[in-house]
Design a protein that fits this description.
Layout lengths: L2 H5 L9 H20 L4 H21 L2 H4 L1 H31 L4 H28 L2 H7 L5 H42 L9 H9 L7 H19 L2 H14 L7 H19 L3 H13 L5 H7 L1 H23 L1
Helix pairs in contact: 2-5, 3-5, 3-6, 5-6, 5-13, 6-8, 8-12, 8-14, 9-10, 11-15, 12-15, 13-14, 14-15
Length: 326
């Protein structure tokens, strides 16, 4: 891997093994291709949204147990489309760093891309359960009547809503925040994209009538995004405020504080990586191939929820400890 490739990464420390050794090198080649044709990174992000969302059609139809080989083919097409979407989503950031075409809108779009994929996918899974649920009904000993189907589908829809809002969205939002925090202490304020809701509100308030409606809507949603990140990290917010109060700027903090934070944060990065696309998508793919996709909702809520709580408690714990020592 050459120096040009490494310059397109946020940091090797925040990449999981699969991203660093497989996805990112492949995305780097695509970034060079798009750069050659002067394609803007935001265009690549939007393309990833369409490709990822399109996979919902095949996830909704892909049932080997019920439809045989055709169902398996649909599943594989869905998986392929979602993997392509992820590659494109990685490509846009590398392309932005390669060409210097970074933008506030690009940062916001990158944050919502995954949610744009998974919202239609989760609705597709609910529809798939409504159409095909013999396996689940057999496990639970439920008669396959129309009334039971409607009730069970309503329950799966609620689980999907909880999984998508409290699970997927909240977990990936927190994972992204911890990556930016890690980069903030590793590279300083200019080397990260650690945003805060106060600053984002100021940007929104300073928008003029010439600002496009699309940009205003995305900026408004990004204020809420950053507020939610801050709400679940009170000890980090306290540490940040303490550093700024005592040293004027976080860039002036003692090197010992930076090293202590970096050491603790680095040990958490492999766990944090499990909240991102690769690990959670493996389970989605597995459940879909086993023709029990609704089980992914339970996995998101229970297993991924417990993992998120563990990561959050550890991160908040060492933030509190460091703040108390300053």
């Amino acid at each position: 891997m050459n120096e040009e490739y490494f310059k397109t990464l946020k940091s090797a420390e925040t990449e999981d093994w699969l991203d660093f050794h497989v996805i990112r090198p492949f995305s780097f080649l695509w970034a060079r291709f798009f750069a050659h044709f002067d394609v803007h990174p935001n265009t690549v992000t939007i393309l990833s949204m369409f490709v990822g969302a399109a996979s919902c059609i095949f996830f909704a139809q892909g049932c080997f147990y019920y439809n045989g080989v055709l169902g398996l083919v649909y599943n594989l097409i869905a998986i392929l489309l979602l993997m392509i979407a992820d590659i494109l989503d990685c490509t846009d950031g590398q392309l932005a760093r390669m060409t210097g075409k970074k933008s506030r809108l690009g940062r916001i779009l990158d944050g919502v891309a995954g949610f744009t994929w998974f919202t239609p996918i989760y609705f597709g899974i609910v529809y798939r359960f409504y159409m095909h649920h013999d396996i689940e009904f057999g496990w639970l000993g439920i008669s396959n009547t129309q009334e039971n189907t409607i009730i069970a589908t309503a329950i799966v829809l609620v689980l999907g809503f909880i999984s998508g809002i409290a699970g997927l969205a909240g977990q990936q939002r927190l994972a992204d925040y911890y990556i930016q925090i890690h980069l903030f202490f590793l590279k300083g304020e200019k080397g990260s994209e650690l945003d805060n809701s106060v600053r984002q509100q100021e940007i929104y308030d300073n928008m003029t009538s010439d600002t496009s409606l699309v940009e205003r809507v995305f900026q408004k949603s990004y204020i809420d995004y950053t507020k939610k990140q801050e709400k679940v990290t009170p000890q980090f917010q306290r540490l940040l405020a303490t550093l700024r109060e005592k040293f004027g700027s976080t860039d002036n903090m003692p090197e010992s504080v930076r090293e202590e934070f970096h050491k603790n944060s680095l040990s958490l990065m492999p766990w944090n990586g499990l909240l991102t696309f690769n690990f959670r998508s493996f389970w989605l793919f597995l459940f879909c191939l086993l023709d029990i996709p609704a089980c992914n909702f339970l996995f998101e809520i229970v297993a991924m929820g417990l993992l998120t709580c563990y990561i959050n408690r550890r991160h908040e714990g060492f933030c509190k400890r460091i703040a108390d020592q300053i």
